[in-house]
Write a structure and sequence with these properties.
Blueprint (H helix, E strand, L loop, with lengths): L1 E6 L9 H15 L5 E6 L12 E5 L7 H10 L1 H7 L4 E4 L12 E4 L4 H4 L6 H17 L2 E4 L2 H11 L6 E3 L13 H11 L4 E6 L8 H20 L8 E6 L6 H10 L6 E5 L6 H7 L2 E4 L8 H8 L4 E4 L4 H5 L4 E3 L4 H13 L1 H16 L3 H16 L1
Helix pairs in contact: 1-15, 7-10, 8-9, 8-13, 11-14, 13-14
């Protein structure tokens, strides 16, 4: 069986969740493909993606970064390429498939954010997704998603039958804890971070709720100072590192930090190189993830794999992914979030418990299992 995977939407090198997901899928599907042939349909930018030797790469002469041209290519040319390449079935990880496809197609929908948080998308993209995703879901032989929460959203918002949607959980990058203090110190210095910091990894979109985290951190600082005034020990220079790309909320966050008197305590270095993440996770006192909406929530698993205690929102898929390995909180309750911060930063019993549970939980998510289950869905769809 010739199994196609579309990567015409991928700009390789951005090191975002889309890239991590696609690299993991291609690698671990190929390693378990047996007599089947994996064929990667790659944008010009995606041809640089490292793949196993048994993956056949077909360059589709389209630039993923040119969205309008790429969309037209997906709908006018990609179906013909699938036929020309003799594919028996194809996976489309971008939630949209060619509506004129003549072979069985499977779409991967990570989440329903364009429906739940439409303001995060430019008008033209929102209009296109609201047109193309429901039609793709209707045409697809099967729909794959990455959490039970996303499955419920897909069934509810797209009106598809529950049995058509298969959950194939992701795994995180294969990080391990960095023990070399010199490597950790170099990463801190590169991004201007203090010796002690609480880490959050999230681009500044509204649903990531970084403003709520800054407010909870302000309360954490106030309580810490009151604790010192009462004769307790102060947690010295515990900064808050907000790591990730600048998006809509960046300027508002900068103003909020200043208004709350946190200048010099909150660090926003912007985008982080993928090769530095394991060191930054390993050097953090704790990891916090305040998001109101996630289809999965890969950063919590990354942090767990690096051996730091995690405090996470319990919203959407996050409670499902974290299990009992994190201190969970309501993302809209600043007091509860602050209490969670105190637990993972100050309570040694909680810290020890969550680090051990985090290692176990991260180990339960495997790219090998993800690849195996995705292959099963595609083989069934392809007959």
């Amino acid at each position: 069986m010739r199994i196609g995977i579309s990567a015409v939407h991928l700009v390789y090198g951005e090191r975002d969740g889309v890239e991590t997901e696609l690299v993991g899928l291609v690698r671990y599907m190929a390693l378990q493909a047996g007599e089947d042939q994996i064929v990667l349909l790659a944008s010009s930018e995606a041809t640089a993606m490292p793949v196993p030797e048994n993956v056949e790469v077909v360059e589709c002469r389209v630039h993923a970064g040119d969205v309008i041209t790429r969309v037209l290519y997906e709908q006018r040319r990609l179906a013909r390429i699938c036929t020309e390449q003799g594919l028996d079935v194809a996976l489309f990880p971008g939630a949209v498939m060619p509506l004129n496809l003549s072979i069985p197609g499977v779409i991967l929908i990570n989440d329903m954010q364009p429906w739940v948080y439409p303001e995060n998308f430019a008008l033209h993209k929102r209009v296109y997704l609201h047109y193309a995703v429901p039609r793709s879901a209707k045409k697809a032989a099967a729909i794959v998603t990455i959490s039970e929460h996303s499955k419920r959203d897909i069934v509810r918002l797209l009106g598809v039958e529950e049995g058509k949607v298969e959950v194939v959980a992701l795994a995180g990058p294969e990080y391990v804890r960095v023990e070399d203090e010199a490597v950790i110190a170099a990463a801190r210095e590169k991004y201007g971070l203090p010796d002690e910091y609480i880490m959050c990894l999230a681009s500044s979109y509204p649903h990531k709720n970084l403003g709520g985290l800054v407010e909870a951190y302000a309360e954490f600082v106030r309580r810490n100072e009151r604790h010192k005034a009462g004769g307790g020990e102060l947690v010295q220079d515990m900064g808050l590192a907000l790591l990730g790309m600048y998006r809509q909320e960046h300027e508002r966050l900068a103003r909020l930090v200043e208004e709350l008197g946190l200048s010099g305590k909150v660090y926003q270095p912007g985008r982080i190189a993928g090769e530095d993440l394991a060191a930054l996770y390993s050097g953090a006192r704790a990891f916090v993830f305040p998001s109101r909406f996630e289809g999965f929530g890969m950063p919590v698993l990354e942090a767990m794999a690096c051996g730091i205690p995690v405090a996470s929102s319990r919203a959407t898929a996050l409670a499902e992914v974290c299990g009992d390995a994190a201190v969970l909180f309501d993302p809209d309750d600043v007091g509860e979030m602050c209490a969670a911060l105190e637990a993972v930063v100050l309570d040694e019993g909680v810290r020890e418990e969550k680090v051990a549970a985090g290692y176990r939980r991260a180990g339960e998510f495997s790219w090998a299992e993800t690849g195996r289950r995705m292959l099963r869905v595609l083989r069934e769809a392809g007959g």
